[in-house]
Amino acid sequence: DAGVTQSPTHLIKTRGQQVTLRCSPKSGHDTVSWYQQALGQGPQFIFQYYEEEERQRGNFPDRFSGHQFPNYSSELNVNALLLGDSALYLCASSRAGELFFGEGSRLTVL
Amino acid sequence: GIQVEQSPPDLILQEGANSTLRCNFSDSVNNLQWFHQNPWGQLINLFYIPSGTKQNGRLSATTVATERYSLLYISSSQTTDSGVYFCAVEWGYSGAGSYQLTFGKGTKLSVIP
Q1: Do B94 and A56 touch (CB under 8 A)?
Q2: Which residue of chain B has the CA closest to A57?
Q3: Beta strand B83-91 with B29-37: parallel, antiparallel or unpaired?
Q4: Which phi-psi region, left, alpha or beta, contains residue A45 (left: φ > 0; alpha: ψ -120 to 50)?
Q5: Which residue among A26, A43, B42, B78 is least enclosed by CB atoms within 10 Å?
Q6: Do β-strands B19-25 and B4-7 pair in parallel, antiparallel, or remain unpaired?
Q7: CB distance A6 to A46 below 8 Å
Q8: How buried is residue A74: exposed, middle or buried, by Cβ count under 10 Å (0-12/13-18/19+)?
Q9: What is the pLDDT of residues B52-100, one digit of tens each?
């Protein structure tokens, strides 16, 4: 049983560019959440998708957007990248309360 | 919003020692999870424990929801236990199937041989 998988694992972008991160949930899970983890901090909730709709959103600007596909996989898009967007981006999937996380995508913005 | 405080922020142990990590939260919670983040960044589920006590090998956890705290016990620590331990809570009315977690800042554990 594959767990939560994310791609790419590492990427480097420059300020102003756009990035797309991808996530495949654990088998049987229908809810996908995205978190941002800055260095030395705990993860912070970005948003959550269920039935292809954004259901909840944390305190992040509209530059952060997402999508969920019929197979429950999800994408996180960040536009107009800032230096402060450099972080580990974590995807989590769930079905009945307990969240399971992927290994993350480490984004560096230069 | 809810406040989640973890203590201690840093902990250094000799291999074989026992330790207790604490998580305090400022409001009632629906769910609580403990995670171990390894050096490569992956968050590994340790316990899903909104209340009560659970044990898994050398690790155990207790959540006392009425007093708003949870404890993670690590016995006979090993070097592979090193990393950051996070407590995360789901709180408030978030609707059916809505699982937004608020994390503490973590406890960084270093186990030395």
Answers
A1: yes
A2: B100
A3: antiparallel
A4: beta
A5: B78
A6: antiparallel
A7: no
A8: buried
A9: 999 999 999 999 999 999 999 999 999 999 999 999 998 765 555 556 8
